[in-house]
Each structure stands twice: as C-alpha cells, then as structure tokens.
Give the backbone structure.
Amino acid sequence: MGERSSAKKKSATKGAKGRAGGAKPESHLALVRRARRINRELAELYPYAHPELDFENPFQLLVATVLSAQTTDLRVNQTTPDLFAVYPTPEDLAAARPEELEQIIRPTGFFRAKAKSLIGLSTALRDNFGGEVPGRLEDLVTLPGVGRKTANVVLGNAFGVPGLTVDTHFGRLVRRWKWTVQEDPEKVEAEIAELFPKSDWTMLSHRIIFHGRRVCHSRKPACGACPIAPLCPAYGEGETDPEKARKLLKYELGGRPGQRLKPPSDYPGEPALPLGAE
C-alpha cells in the first residue's frame, strides 16, 4: 500500500477529532463530495477490484452467489469446481438428487436450504427462461433463493448492468462513513444510489467490499493503515498505530492469498488454495 506521509497522518487525526468534536452537520453536497472522494481513493488502492467468486458464465455466478450466503467466497470457490463438474447446466442441476447435491455443497454451510434453492432456481430457469439466466432484475428475483443483492451481483458482473451489492461489508462501511444510517439493505441501496452516478455502482460495490475485507474489519479495523482515514468519521474505532494496524491487513495487503482460485490476471496477490490444501 505504501507509507502515508506524516502530513496525511496528522490530517487523519485532526479530521477525526473535528468530526467527533461537535462540528456542524455535514450538508448533502459535502456528503456527496466526500463519498465520491472516498470512491476515488479506493479506486487508487484497489485498481484490480473484482467479484471474488470464481465463475465462467451467468449460471455459475448465480449459483455461486446463492452459495455464498453465511460463508466466505473462498469456501464457495473451493466447492464449486466439483459442483459444476457434476451439474454444469441448469437442466442438470434441476434434475439433481437433493442428498447428492447436499453432500457436494456441505462445506458452504446451510447445505439443505441451499440445495433446495439451487434445485428450485434451476428448475425455474429450465421451465420459465429456456435454461438461460435472465438479464433483468424483475426476472431474477422471481427465482427461489434470489433477492436483490444476488440479482445485482449477477446483473453487474455477468451482464454489465450497474447495481449496488449491499452485503454485510458494504452496509457496515457506508454506515461507518455516515453515508447512511439505514439498516435495511434496500433502503441502504436506495440512499447510496443517490450519491453516485449509476455507472459507478458495480465497481463502487467491489471497492467497498474489498476494503471491508482487507482493512475496515468489523471488530478491529486497521485505522492506522487506512488511506481514507482523513475522510472517515469513524477513524479511531480501530487500531491507529501504523505498525500494529499493518499487521491487521488481510489477503493481498497482508501478504496472503486472496479468495479466488482463479483470480483475474491483474490481481497482485496469490491465488487461494483448493479445498483440503490449506
């Protein structure tokens, strides 16, 4: 990530104290400017930001996203090679025996409910959409186990249709940054959408999720190693000492493998290991 200058460190501390010390409320225009500046800073930090699920087509991304609920993308990526080897198409997965499918996806957790959703959505794709994943949100959310978050992931990354992915990382960070106070994902999505051009939505989602996984963790954010500290109202909630904060960095920023077994060519870190090879 590189060293921050001492001036930037002082700016972070001064800015955090100013925001915590009863400064006047931020205007909407100031909020928009700060939010967009944070996005620009994140774009510099993560020029390689990408969806962290391995996929080769819309169907694989849809299935992987459903499997990613309540687990890590890494565990999904370690599971889907065997899954798609056995069930490469919606028609194949629609005809799966539940107990056999459950055994394959067991490592992702909640495997019975997920198996039911996968068979249900594959059946709907086969019967209602000619075996193809639809490219419209209103169609995707009719599929079993598919809500707005999953639909936006598929639309943004398989079809190039802009969307905001409001997962736990996204929601946590935008609330820390005071972009919204909403907790409901749909309300969060609506409020954040007003701050950015539609064309920014998909990449903004990737950058925020990357930052939440690598730097701005839930319990111990690495504030002292965060390049957007001067813009963050929550600076100081985590470790502010630069050396200690750097030890909290994860994945490529911490010198460890990422979550994808097959990352994009511009990813600067190491690929993840297959299941059982950790």
About this structure: Residues 28-45 form the longest helix (18 residues). The radius of gyration is 20 Å.
